[in-house]
Prior knowledge:
The protein is α/β, with parallel strands linked by helices. It is built from 9 helices and 15 strands. The strands form 3 sheets. Strands 3, 4, 5, 6, 7, 14 and 15 form a 7-stranded mixed sheet that branches. Strands 10-9-8-11-12-13 form a 6-stranded parallel sheet, with helices on both faces. A two-stranded antiparallel ribbon has the order 1-2. The radius of gyration is 20 Å and the shape is globular. The two termini are about 15 Å apart.
Amino acid sequence: MGQSNRQWIVAQASQSPGIGLERACFGQRDGAIPGPGVGQVLIRNGWFACDPMNHAWVKGLEARFSPIPVGGIMRGGVAGRVVESRHPDFAPGDAVTGFLDWADYTLSTGGVDYTGTPLQKLPADLSPASGLATLGMTGHCAWLGLFDIGRPRPGDTVVVSGAAGAIGTVAVQLARLAGCRVIGIAGGPRKCSFLLKELGIDAAIDYQRENVAERLRETCPSGIDVFFDNVGGVVLDTALTCLARGARVVVCGGISGYNSAAHGLTNHLMLAIQGATMAGFFYFDHVHRLAEINARLADLLRSGDLREVLDVAEGFDSVPDAALGQFQGKNLGKQLVRIAAI
């Protein structure tokens, strides 16, 4: 074990109104490797997860999380391996994941963290990276949004925005496995081609090059039964004009408005006209269901029915580019940073 513990810290608060995460927020420092106290585990981190929530960790999220103070260690999804343990439920060598410090090494009590999420022990036969993707917040959000709110039925038309992103690539596959006709909205021919050829969806709409309203009417002649939204803004507003009777709109994310002024909805009355519903969920309200959902998703991974789509940046110093790139649509699938072989 080395003597240094590199840490990503909040170097300064964002200087741009409405923006939580920008390059000037990222700073590095070296610290000592902590020793675990009674009831604690020391984790050697191997992977960081770049999520839209990185924006909220730095900016704060009203009524949910206070911002990380300037000089504080950045936090986020982390997968690592226990190297020392003074906790009865964890042993050296265990692969674990949680919302932890973005550092080479971090301590955990093994219990619930500041988000209310417990440290998760990962299946030995699956990659630790899966704990940040399919078996992490990404896969859980896809499952919760699709099945709890979307409630797809075989033959339904399901449209997913941000379909080539982390949650989107899981949601389109789950919808296809549920016997639905699946349309994905994504940015650029590379992503649309991947969705069609690699994930087997029925149609893809390139919002950068195509008229989304026209393509939705073309690909969903009977309307959208389930709209799983990761984008918000204009894309959501457009989809509301194409709903089927009794449609369900899932509000999972709104990445189009995280770093800019949000586009106000003008077509919300279509919910009433079509007898549709629109509902959202907050992931951290559902952490009591992690074991149940993980068991199902792990089985789908093992069987090969669900493909894990990872976009991996290499090295500790690649964190800022990877974290900021997700807000520019650069990632295909789940954006991870591998900082060490574990």
